[in-house]
Amino acid sequence: MPRVFVQGSPVGHYPRHAPEAGRGTVRRITETGEEVLHKSCRDVTEFGPDLAALIDDMFLTMYVAEGAGLAANQVGIGLRLFVYDCPDDDGVRHVGHIVNPVLDAPVRGRRLLDEDEGCLSVPGAVMAVPRPERAVVRGQDRNGDPLVIEGTGYFARCLAHETDHTHGHVYLDRLSRRDRKDALRQMTDRRDEVFARRAARAVELGRP
């Protein structure tokens, strides 16, 4: 079985970081509580160099923050778009972007996996969140061509999590009040450590 899928298609080999990151600039990651994270994003209607440049920046920003996915509103842009570089539970790597994503409604009775989840906009916090074991997201690529991405396990979690962002939801919204308070406490305790690690990673990637 292929070990890497790019935009949903198998490839024979692939670099450690998506080539887009080499063209990108690091952007500031928004944090929970900022308005752009908590309202629905606009559809992307213009496909061109500005969108391509945003995708490049998002890939690099995601790698600096050591994330598996990043939505546009996490860099302050209220557009329906996310990038990802994420393994599934079989260790297969999935890399790509999806514009105007729509998550298929889960099949009735589909098993939920209640596993740990974090978010670059809630730095340092990790909580168990139930998500379907399989996800299908439909949208477009940077050129406006139709795209369908399927994932299982951890990659399905990533697809659902990032699509949530485009609707103005962070994973804290799926937690009980008590668990949400716990997550925010973790964020307070670990935020400085996370930011120090991101700064070191930016230097490592040559983008301080």
CATH class: Alpha Beta
Find the CATH topology. Answer: Peptide Deformylase
Total helical elements: 3
Question: What is the ordering of alpha helices and beta strands?
Answer: EEHEEEEEEEHH
| Radius of gyration computed on alpha carbons | 16 Å
Into how many domains do the coordinates divide?
1
Can you name the CATH architecture?
Alpha-Beta Complex
Q: What's the rounded overall pLDDT mean?
A: 94
Structural class: alpha+beta
Which percent range describes the beta-strand content?
Answer: 25-35%
Number of strands: 9
User: Helical content, roughly?
Assistant: 25-40%
Poorly predicted regions: none
Using the alpha-carbon principal axes, give the shape.
Answer: globular
Distance between the termini: 38 Å
Structure commentary:
- This protein is an alpha+beta fold.
- It has one domain: Peptide Deformylase (Alpha-Beta Complex).
- Helices cover 28% and strands 26% of the residues.
- The chain is built from three helices and nine strands.
- It has helices at residues 49-64, 153-166, 177-204; strands at residues 4-6, 9-11, 69-71, 81-87, 93-103, 112-118, 126-132, 134-140, 146-152.
- The chain is globular and about 45 Å long.
